[in-house]
Structure formats: structure tokens, C-alpha cells
Amino acid sequence: MYVLVFMFVMLVIVFTLLGVLVYGREISNPRWVAVGTGDVALAYSDDGEIWEGIEGVFGEENVGNGYDIFKAGNRWVAVGDDEDDSNIWYSDDAEEWIAIEGPFGSGNATSVYYANGIWVVTGIDENDEGTLWWSNDAEEWTEVEDVAFERSGLVVQYPGPWLAGGTMNGDAGEIVLASSDGIEWENVNFPETGDDAYVNTFFSHI
Length: 206
Fold this sequence. Notes:
Elements: H1 2-18, E1 21-22, E2 25-26, E3 32-35, E4 42-45, E5 51-53, E6 65-72, E7 75-81, E8 86-91, E9 98-101, E10 108-115, E11 118-124, E12 130-135, E13 142-143, E14 151-157, E15 162-167, E16 176-179, E17 186-187
Antiparallel strand pairs: 1-2, 3-4, 4-5, 6-7, 7-8, 8-9, 10-11, 11-12, 12-13, 14-15, 15-16, 16-17
């Protein structure tokens, strides 16, 4: 009995010191981050009630937009567009942000996801064509070649394969891409959808 009590107390101490992680949020120091459109396109909060805006991310005074955000470990990655072609931003505390220039050019990044050591961002390049980029650290990015999208807008991975969705003028099998590792992608069989169809979201439940 005393042994069990001692083990329980030790576990409580360890979890308190390290912080218990639940679904990527640290209970000992929770933090929310919001992205959108406005004079301030990114803000953070530690309780969901009081928010602190971060100026300069995605441009100044309503010139850019934040579309999506994801956190893995200590790293946050936010994606969107701004006038300086800085479509990907990363931070390790949600307060100080660093811009990545280059991917997507003057287009925009629309979705970001992380799994198994890989970050993947999807969006639209400067020629209004869909594109995918991947990274191990969210700092150095590599473009996926031969992406068969006119416009891509969503990427997820859970469970099983990576999936990216967008639109491709209704041709069967050209509206969804799949990948086993987030690096090599191919079109998958998808019903013919008609003109200007678009995949808005994926969901899987086990």
C-alpha cells in the first residue's frame, strides 16, 4: 500500500515539473493562437479571454491574411499571405515570429499540418496553381513536384495517409492527393465532381 502511494506521489511530482501534454496543449502553460484578417492578423492568449495582438505578422494594417495555424512540440507555424510574400511564419513561444519568404511567391498558403516529423503546407502559387511544400523544421522548405491541382486548400494526416484537397475542374481522381510520408504525393481515385468542385475538409474517426 505504501509503495503504491509513494509511486503515485512521485508521478504527480514528475508530471507537475514536466507539464502534462494533452492533444498538443501543455496543461501547465496552455496557450491559444488565433489568425485572421485585420490590422492585427495574429493574436495569442493564455486563457482564451485576454488576447495580445502581434503586429507585423502577415503585414501591417489589413494588407495580409492568416488562414491556418498548427503547433507541434514547442513550434507554432502560421500560414497565410501578405504583400511581402511571407506566407509562412514560425515561432517557439507564439510571441516572437519569424517569416519565411519564397514558398508560394505572391500567392498564399492556406493550410498547415504536422505529423511524424514532417510539416506540410498547401496553397496557391503566384500563377494561381495549387502547390504543396514540406519541411522537417518549418524553416527550410521543399516544393512537391507535379501537383495535379488548380487550387489546393487543405492538408491533414490522421490516421493513415496524408491527404490534400482542393479543386481540379471536376476531373475524376484529380481533386484529392495522398501521401504515405508527406513528401511523395499522387492523385487518388475520387468520384467525378463536376465543374469547379472543391474539397473543404476531411474527417476520420476510430
